[in-house]
Each structure stands twice: as structure tokens, then as C-alpha cells.
Design brief:
Blueprint lengths: L1 H49 L3 H27 L1 H12 L2 H8 L1 H16 L7 E4 L2 E8 L3 E6 L4 E5 H6 L2 E3 L5 E10 L5 H13 L12 E7 L4 E10 L7 H18 L23
Antiparallel strand pairs: 1-2, 1-5, 2-3, 3-4, 6-8, 7-8
Length: about 280
Amino acid sequence: MKKLASLVTDDLADLRQLLVALLIGILLLVFFVYLSRWIKKIARIRLGKRTEDSLLADFIATSIRFIVLLFGITLILRFLGLTGVVSSILAGAGITAFIIGFALKDIGENFLAGILLAFKRPFKIGDLVEIQGISGKVRALNLRDTQIKTLDGKDVFLPNASIIKSPLINFTIDGYLSYNFMLGLGYGCDYQKALALITQTLNQVPGVLSGKKGPMALVNEIGDSALLIRVSYWVNTYDKKHADHVVRAAAILAVLEALEGANYPLPGRIIELKGTIPGEQNQP
């Protein structure tokens, strides 16, 4: 009877000790979660003062938080005495390296690719890019993926490793983007004056750049019913006051209104129909 009571007492003591250890482990986990967030915030502020590249600063700060959190989890497992048990079981089964390597393959590959992207810097936050046929603006670079906001409002998360392996088009890496559109001038008008009017009109459109990146109107080819003109201009994508699509619409409308106001002919596409009208061939 005394032995049974002693065993029960020992079991309760072990259970109490286990519960205390679990409680301390949970408190330590919560502590390291908040500590990692605080360190990330401080690192982001310090790095933001030393570099203008917010993408690189965010990635380094996130990596620091990940390392702190990983250190905390390792410390908690050591405190609970689980690292040795888990390692012994996996090692005894002979599958430790296989499981860890297989489970962390994609994570490690994307993490290393993220480091390369952060330091190589093929894009910045807000850049308009095209990757694997997906076009949009870069929103964030995370440890595993890159977030892109498409032009129709969708959020796409591309694994960093796939970005490294695929061709990447950055339309706004230097802040400038070129647009163009085609129009037709009727034959017989004063072409040189029409081209000069187009250029002069575009120079007055808000958001269209001037100088070395000023607008141009050049003859593209001779069409069947009109002389085809290619009109091109540049915009500054970092200019938040003039959105690209708004400038594009304003430029096209301004050119059309100017040409129509000066009575320049703008013929549409002429389609010539050949053949007989159904039923006509049966008439006498």
C-alpha cells in the first residue's frame, strides 16, 4: 500500500514537473515570437536609414527574425529535452538526413533564391514586371515567395526559385516606360505639319515627358487607305500624380482632337466586299 502511494506520489510529481516545463516552454515560445517581431522592426528601421532599397531592407529584417525564432525554438526543445529524443529516434531509424533534406528542399531552395534576389535586386517594390507570363507590380519579397499584384487586381505569389530560373522583364527598373499607338492620316494632307502638330499636342499632355525622352511621331508604313503614323512617348512611372493608363488615354484623345480640329482626314479601315448578292444570280 505504501509502495502504491509512493508510486502515485512520484507520478503526480513527474506530471507536475512536466506541466511546469510545458508552461515554461509555451511562455518562452511567446517571448521569442514577440522578441523576433521587435528585432525585425528595429532592424527594418536601422536598415531603412542606411539604404533606399526597401526590398533589401525588408528581406534582411525578415531573415533576422527567422533566425531569432529558429534559435528560440531550438532553445525550447533543448529545455524540454526533446532534441535528443527526436534525434535518437530518427537516427535509429536511419532516415534523419532523408526526411530533413526532403522536407526542407523547397524551403531551402526558395530561401537561397530569395537571398540572391534581394542582393542582385532585379526589381524594387512597385516595379512593373513580367515573370512566366504574369504581369504586375512587385508588392513584397518574402523568404519563400515574391508577391505580385496583377493589373486586374489579383495577388500572385511566385516561388523565389522559379523566378531565378525564369526570364524576368522589368518595365520600370529605371522609372521610365514608353507607350505608343498607331493612327492613319488621309493621303493628300500636309504630313510634316500633321507630325509637328502631334508632337506639339503631346508635349502639352500632363505626365508626358519632354526633352531627350520627348514624344515622337514617325511614319510607320504606307497603308491602303491612309499613311500609318506611329506615335510614341515616355512617362515617369514614379510620378504618382499621373497614372500610366490615365496619361495614355489623355494622350490619344488629345492627338485625335487636335487633328480633327485642324481638319486633317483620319480615314478608317476600308473593307472592299466582292461577290454576288445571294439570290441575285437567279434573277433574269
